[in-house]
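Table 4 source record.
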Amino acid sequence: MDAFDFHLARSQSRRQVLAGLGLGGAAVLSTPAIGQSLVELGLPGGPSTRPMTSEFPQKGAMILQRLRPPLLETPMEVFDGSVFTPNDRFFVRWHWANIPTAIDVASYRIAIRGHVDRQLSISLAQLLRMPRIELAAVNQCSGNSRGLFEPRVPGAQWRHGAMGNARWVGVSLRHLLDLAGVRSGALAVRFGALDQPVVPTGPDFSKSLAIDHARNGEVIVAFQMNGEQMPLLNGFPARLIVPGWYSTYWVKMLNDIEVLDGPDQGYWMAKAYKIPDTPGANVAPGTKDFPSVPINRMVPRSWITSWSDGTPLGYAPDLPVGGIAMGGDAAVARVDISADHGRTWHSAKLGPDEGKYGFRRFDANVRVPRPGKVTLMSRCTSAAGETQPISPNWNPGGFMRGCVETSTVTLV
């Protein structure tokens, strides 16, 4: 693997005046050692062991999927605690290896330009003085669980840990757009960031939202994560939060907001992150000619986190089972559990509702008639009436897996 220059330091200059507002001065990155141990992810389509590392700045023990650019996966056991994913265990995914290794908050600006009445350049200090909103939302990579696609597809071979749930604090994007004054005829808003292509011809990463979506009051420019300064690798100083949509839209290190009076024809909207325009984004393996649309809203998902796959347990007639669920772009309405390959389902008890876009804890006791292998399944139904299917989808991008997942334990 390529070496990646990482260490973390903070400026001791006057820029630390922002620390009292929950933000440090400058952050700088240098080289981590890679794996202290290996973890088996059980991926069916290819090599499935990965190193664990705790050498990245502001990060604890993570599954190392790629070093350059950094792709760090959250171990599943992390999700069995709080429904909020700790910042130091929150997954990391970048598209280009050329990400900033230092941020000077004194000079950092977010430009608002394009089809607006007033072009603005907003400093972090100004952003921090604006009215704040807070919401809980799951940030999930479009390719989360891609490593389970059969047949295998190219791309990062994540298991289930390319996701996390946090409380995000920031400023409504609608507020920022209103300050600039959106002109009549605006169709979309495009977002750019500080990361850069590694080659001159590479397309600068950017994503866009339809104007009504951008102004719905729920999309925010966040600077705080779980009550703390956002880690550098998760988007410091500020990132876009698009609740209910996949993380490709959650632009990190945001520095550019452009209002468009026409459709976004850039690479990352017109070419990349496209899904089949079919139910469940599903096509038969090998299919190449199909209508496509940009990936968008998330779908319901759930995972059993109380027992790892393959865990041996002492037999008892009642087996406690717990985990987390998400409703996609709607709240979790119910979660059902099966211990007989889906022949019968039993309703689980839901934990506190921390917001419709976040994780919801579920727990149940499953009746087990005898020792042996037991395949546990969880199935989420959203408030919109959408239920996880039993069969997995397939598409050449490895996007939007949302089927019922299984976990097998052996009772002895």
